[in-house]
Write a structure and sequence with these properties.
It is a single chain. The protein has 405 residues and is an alpha/beta fold. It folds into two domains: 150 residues, Aspartate Aminotransferase, domain 1 (Alpha-Beta Complex), CATH 3.90.1150.10; 229 residues, Aspartate Aminotransferase, domain 2 (3-Layer(aba) Sandwich). The chain has 15 helices and 17 strands. Helix 4 runs parallel beside helix 12 and helix 14 crosses helix 15. It holds the Pfam family Aminotran_3. It is found in: Cytoplasm. Belongs to the class-III pyridoxal-phosphate-dependent aminotransferase family. ArgD subfamily. Pathway: Amino-acid biosynthesis; L-arginine biosynthesis; N(2)-acetyl-L-ornithine from L-glutamate: step 4/4.
């Protein structure tokens, strides 16, 4: 190859598999809740890498943890354990219902482990017939073939041949639909406390309590997928804490690494014992670099002042969105909790969330969608009031751009 390589959006089409359609801009630098592209244009980040960058970009605590660990030890494999993994596991256990932790690299892997554990638990505790997993329409649990089948969006799982069996889908927030499916053959019910990809739909307290009671009645495990809601995103360390309902297995990723790939499955000693030596594993799971960063995330996020700030920021977001909506009448409601919010488009603008997303980018704001009818916000948990105000000013211009076009 002669000459200097032109690293631009066209190179993506040349060398990358076409399963993504990324924006034309290529970010090169981030600090806090601001990001700059190759041309030096600045954006306010309300997307957080899809609820991942829990402490914004290049947070000093995370940069410090990563660079410190990078000079010590990068990788061992699980033939040996390591100090950062043990410290992180202890902190997760101390802060939650859990007694045991399994580390993976992503939310999908954490869910894969959870589903395999539920099946193995049922097989050893009861029988091979107790293998059914109940999930919900519009749910999302990852992109491995097992997790995407458990997820309630056929568009993501169709077209790859025969799917894993014994997976049923009920209707979210409809307890009767769970009652109609659950039986002695059910090994687990899996749910997101707030459906993320499905449109930022929070579970009602009655629904979660009802599902917990049904799981107890039919001796099934309750798995809570907190990949998107976990690690302070809703104003508590994990969203289950808002409900007063304890899961049997919890999965966590995204915000846990603050941008570094890491996932974890949390459970009790009694359930964990069914993943005996050799039954499941991960080459990179529990990697010292990932765990050192995640430990710094937990240390930083799991503080009363940070969790309180998340709920204060939610109020600010809602105030700004209400003011914008008063002018332009585009949203029917604002759903979600903490720094995971969905602005639901009203009938007039239904199906047009991508237009708002693209207009936001035009105005220098990174936002998200959650399906065709919802604009999603999942910014840093420590975003400043000034950045919220600036971002909302830009979002108002984006709304104006779409609404008056």
């Amino acid at each position: 190859m002669t000459g200097e390589l032109q690293v631009n959006r066209a190179l993506f089409d040349e060398v990358m598999v076409p399963n993504y359609a990324p924006a034309g801009v290529i970010p090169v630098k981030g600090k806090g809740s601001r990001v700059w592209d190759q041309q030096g244009r600045e954006y306010v980040d309300f997307a957080g890498g899809i609820a991942v960058s829990s402490l914004g970009h290049c947070h000093p605590a995370l940069v410090g943890a990563l660079t410190s660990q990078a000079g010590k030890l990068w990788h061992l494999s699980n033939v040996m354990t390591n100090e950062p993994a043990l410290r992180l596991a202890k902190k997760l256990v101390d802060a939650t219902f859990a007694e045991k932790v399994y580390f993976a690299n992503s939310g999908a892997e954490a869910n894969e482990a959870a589903f395999k554990l539920a099946r193995r638990w049922a097989l050893e505790q009861y029988s091979a017939e107790k293998d059914q997993i109940i999930s919900f329409g519009k749910s999302f649990h990852g992109r491995t073939f097992f997790t995407v089948t458990v997820g309630g969006q056929a568009a993501y799982s169709d077209g790859f041949g025969p799917k894993p069996g014994a997976v049923l889908h009920a209707e979210f927030n409809n307890l009767d639909s769970v009652k109609a499916l659950i039986s002695d053959k059910t090994c687990a019910v899996v749910l997101e406390p707030i459906q993320g990809e499905g449109g930022i739909i929070p579970a009602t307290k009655e629904f979660i309590e009802g599902v917990r009671a049904l799981c107890d009645q039919y001796k099934a495990l309750l798995i809570m997928d907190e990949v998107q809601t976990g690690v302070g995103r809703t104003g508590k360390l994990y969203a289950y804490m808002h409900y007063g309902v304890t899961p049997d297995i919890l999965t966590t990723a995204k915000s846990l690494g603050g941008g570094f790939p890491v996932g974890a499955m949390l459970t009790t000693t009694d359930i964990a014992k069914h993943l005996k030596v050799g039954t499941h594993g991960s080459t990179y799971g529990g990697n010292p670099l990932a765990c050192a960063v995640a430990e710094a995330v937990i240390d930083t996020v799991n503080q009363p002042e940070v969790l309180t700030k998340v709920l204060q920021s939610e109020k600010l977001f809602r105030q700004h969105l209400a003011a914008i909506n008063e002018k332009y009448q585009v949203f029917s409601e604002i759903r979600g909790q903490g720094m995971l919010l969905g602005a639901v488009l009203n009938d007039k603008f239904k199906g047009r969330s991508r237009e708002f997303f693209l207009a936001s980018a035009d105005q220098g704001l990174m936002a998200l969608v959650a399906g065709p009818d919802v604009v999603r916000f999942a910014p840093s948990l420590v975003i400043t009031d000034a950045d919220i105000a600036e971002g909302m000013q830009r979002f108002e211009q984006a709304v104006k751009q779409v609404a008056t076009a």
